[in-house]
Amino acid sequence: MLLLAVLSAALFLSFLGRREFATSHEARVAQVARVMADSGWPWNARPVEVAPARLIKRDGMIRLSPDPEAPPVRVNPWLVPVLNDEIRLQKPPLPYWCAAILFRLAGGPSEALARLVPAMLGALTVFLLYDLTRVLYGSTVAWCTSLVWLTTYLVPEEYRLAMADPYLAFFTLAALWAWIRSSLSRADSVFNGHKIAPDPIYRPSRVQRAFSLAPHGSGDGYVLLFYLFLGLGALAKGPVVSLVVAVPVLVFHGCFRRRIPGGIIPHLLGLAVLLLVALPWPMAVMRHVPNAAELWRYESVGELTDNTENARAWWYYVANLPLLTAPWTPLWVFAVVYAFLRNRPRTWFPITWYLVLFLCFTAVHLKKNPYLLPAMPAQAMMIGLAAATLLRVARRIRFRGVPGALILTQTAVGIVVAIILALLLWRESDRHAAVLGLMIPVALVAWLPLWPIVRRWPMPWLAVQAIAYALLLLVFGDVYLTRENNARSPKAVCAEISQMIDGTHRALLVSKLPEEVAFYLPLRPRGAAPRQWIWVKDDEKGVKQRQKARKPPPPEPVPEDFDGWVAGAKVVAVRRVPLRSAPGDTRWKVYELTVDYSRIALVFR
User: Fold this and answer.
1) pTM of the entire structure?
2) What is the CA radius of gyration of the chain?
3) For the chain, domain boundaries
4) CB 78 within 8 A of CB 36
């Protein structure tokens, strides 16, 4: 447990603030939370003035768009999230609330604070997964599963981001853990004359008894926890939590032949808890934003029907399987084969859970690798279940045959990754001495798992291999990826922009700012009627296309391209602002829009 705690802290909680915001996904959460924190605490928040939202459908996409003709309204940003002076209801508010509370307590926003809560949830998940696997398959499989889950690339990478997906994944696993714990309580410990797990789970520990609200460990307390976690998951990502929780619950009952835990009263109380947690916020929002219900339908159920925005091909996740399973891909292949060879209901639980969720997310139009985070515990469990058997057989036959070949292959993956990572750092960095000083010990650790193989130590091999993978993930994420990410960040550009705006003569065009740019700029820079407005364009895709085709930079925009951007005024001149941090044809381009508020200009607009 000490090793799991150390690895969790290193992989999830270290260097959270080194990577700057370079994409809109994290910046949206952080910027909305920044507005909340700036307004004060929820009970005495300063209202924010925004334009009323109207539902529009353009090119098959449904959006809440500000209505410029209607008078502005004042909203509490803790209740109605606000992003760049516009109402944002695409996602529920729990991630915003968590980050905003930390911003308030710390006295200001930062990248590390925005990522702290999902990172802590990731660190806690390993212990939930360990306990869940232990009660189903025993301590050995739980140990293997936890090490695999911790060092699967997608897990620490996504749990360290300020997004809603880590919240959904954590509450999904927590709800499943509570449900299975309730099913395996002492009051329901034997079914069909046999016990399920080899561990003494039917004598609850002091911690387990503390979680149980009913006497003698009947499991009713776990039922209430299940509904609480379900409600928090809905408050983090919406109704999709019902799908990702229902799949493993149904598969569990099918594979382990357990009856529904608890009685009618605990479930009725649990439903009351679920509604009390999940319903107040959407009901309050619908009173202020009448079109919110249709937007939520489009963003959730609509992804199976009419929402084809950013749709990807059906084979997207299949093509990404090497990334989703890295670096445990060899053992993942063996785990799939092992399920068919073992062919027992208990063995089929994690792989069926994994496969059904995989197919469900494949059917959704919009596909992203973070969406599969709720399936990662199932992937780790199926690998851990197969790895425990593989290591037991390898010890008996002294690492010969197929088990020995698989273990050597898995070790070779770490060695190859270490070599490739060293070459990447050498190519991208001018400080070759520092690269050598970093990669020499990393390379030695990558070779270290060969020692337990020589000594015929199966379980120590897995621990050493996990430590080697953890070190490689830390170097890859916190050194290489951070360097690449910060090179694309707008932080340096925003530092120059902050010096040129005064809020009176020159102000920011807030509603048109990219979210990652808005986070590094003043929150309320608007003046009364400035003559110049600053607009920042994200031209990353255009730069890549022009570099690939060897085309020159695009021509300067003309004033007619900005008609309607500034309410009550006409853009009469546009010029690109030269910046030291963004010279030439770079991603971030800054423009100054000169406007005319006269009636003559408006007539000819």
Assistant:
1) 0.91
2) 27
3) 2-15+112-386, 399-487, 491-603
4) yes
